[in-house]
Design a protein that fits this description.
Elements: E1 3-8, H1 15-27, E2 32-38, E3 41-42, E4 46-47, H2 52-62, E5 66-70, H3 72-75, H4 79-92, E6 97-102, H5 107-117, H6 120-131, H7 136-147, H8 152-155, H9 158-173, E7 178-183, H10 200-209, H11 225-233, H12 240-253, H13 256-260, H14 269-277, H15 282-289, H16 296-308, H17 312-321, E8 326-332, H18 336-341, E9 348-349, H19 352-358, H20 361-379, H21 391-394, E10 398-400
Parallel strand pairs: 1-2, 1-6, 2-5, 6-7, 8-9, 8-10
Antiparallel strand pairs: 3-4, 5-8
Helix pairs in contact: 4-9, 5-9, 6-7, 12-14, 12-16, 14-15
């Protein structure tokens, strides 16, 4: 095994992420650790707290050998789109295996659930449940439990569920990726900050509230800590209120006809969305829109689609075609030979500006979506001096000898 892939957001990178990287380094020291990382927006429908440039650098410091950006059209999709995009990108890079953390580590069980999720009868049952008002995640869970009763344990845990989507993508697209599962040590959605492998959610909340007074030594790897503190001191992190205000403005600016063309809209939701936009804040609108059918996660992604003008047509094309390039965000000396001789089936992009100039068609659409996501995220940074646009053109991949 020469390469092991990891799909990550590192939002932000913390001790739990470092544990995964060190585990792989100890178990398979000869294998390069290649991370496919969400860029400026993450799957839950928010701008990443720190820039993709900082997060890629921290990944290298923590033990990754290479970081590739997962294009925004996949990073900001449903769990199915996110997982399929990431797995197809790793496979196109020629990666041998991939590793994911899960609360449930019985790989045979997870694989059997993933294969069942691709069963025609399960998908028909999902469609029935969607018509009755369930949102997709709940419909998938119920449909699977009806034919795989032992799936309950896995489907009650968010990372196990995401792992099932990774395995499902491998089955769907016939990908040659060997799965490796390790036990996740922290609760992905926990809001309580503990010194032992905190969740990224809890850490983000803490940093948002205490950026200048935070004591961070127990939450970040020693090599990463100074750079995190530097980003915080410079105000190079997202102020979520700026972002929420942007969502609310866009929701008022866009007409119902324009909203109906965006990803995940339709079914009359654009009308309810416009009513919500008349409320004093996105927070109030979000709670008014929440229903049995529309989870907060889906609403948050839809909110991002309003800001990024993400059309349903483009999202559908992206899911059909998969990733069309691999943008390098950083690499180490150990990965240089692999980069020179890799047999990737996708263009591996180190110099972004000339690639953008020569891109056309659907590739150009991907590129513009990535750059808009970065520009929007940076416009939400805390410090005015950090809100520069067009940073994608000026970035050179990080290199650690």
């Amino acid at each position: 095994m020469n390469t092991i892939g990891i799909v990550a957001e590192y939002n932000p990178l913390h001790m739990g992420h470092a544990y995964q990287l060190s585990y792989l380094a100890e178990r398979w020291p000869q294998a390069l650790r290649i991370v496919v990382m969400s860029g400026s927006f993450v799957q839950r429908g928010m701008p990443a707290f720190f820039s993709k440039y900082d997060r890629a650098y921290w990944a290298l410091l923590a033990g990754a050998d290479m970081v590739i950006e997962l294009p925004s059209l996949f990073a900001l999709g449903s769990a199915e789109i996110f997982s399929a995009g990431a797995m197809r990108l790793l496979a196109a890079l020629g990666v041998d295996a991939f590793c994911f953390g899960s609360e449930v580590t019985n790989l045979d069980m997870l694989t059997s659930i993933a294969e069942a999720a691709n069963n025609a009868s399960v998908n028909e049952r999902i469609r029935e449940l969607l018509k009755s008002g369930h949102f997709y995640g709940a419909a998938l869970r119920q449909a699977l439990l009806e034919i795989v009763p032992h799936a309950d344990e896995a489907l009650n845990h968010p990372n196990a569920t995401l792992g099932i989507e990774y395995l499902r993508a491998i089955d769907t697209y016939g990908l040659s990726l060997l799965p490796i599962v390790i036990e996740r040590q922290s609760d992905y959605n926990s809001t309580s900050l503990t010194e032992s492998l905190p969740s990224a959610s809890a850490l983000r909340n803490y940093l948002q509230a205490n950026p200048s007074t935070a004591s961070l030594a127990c939450y970040f790897p020693e090599d990463v800590l100074p750079s995190v503190e530097n980003a915080l001191s410079l105000g190079r992190y997202v102020n979520m209120q700026r972002y929420y205000d942007m969502v609310h403005w866009q929701s008022r600016i866009l007409s119902t006809a324009e909203l109906s063309q965006l990803t995940d809209f339709g079914e009359g939701l654009e009308n309810a969305w416009k009513k919500g936009a008349s409320l004093p804040s996105w927070f109030l609108a979000r709670h008014q829109l929440k229903s049995k059918r529309y989870s907060f996660s889906r609403l948050d992604r839809m909110a991002a689609y309003t800001v990024l003008r993400r059309s349903a047509a483009l999202q559908k094309k992206a899911h059909q075609h998969g990733p069309l390039y691999a943008r390098l965000l950083g690499f180490t000396g150990a990965a240089r030979d692999w980069l020179r001789g890799n047999d990737s089936t996708l263009p591996l992009i180190q110099k972004w500006a000339p690639f953008v100039r020569h891109s056309t068609g659907l590739v150009k659409d991907y590129v513009l979506a990535d750059m808009l996501a970065t520009d929007i995220q940076h416009a939400c940074f805390t410090a005015e001096a950090m809100r520069l646009g067009d940073t994608d053109y000026r970035f050179t991949p990080h290199y650690l000898a």
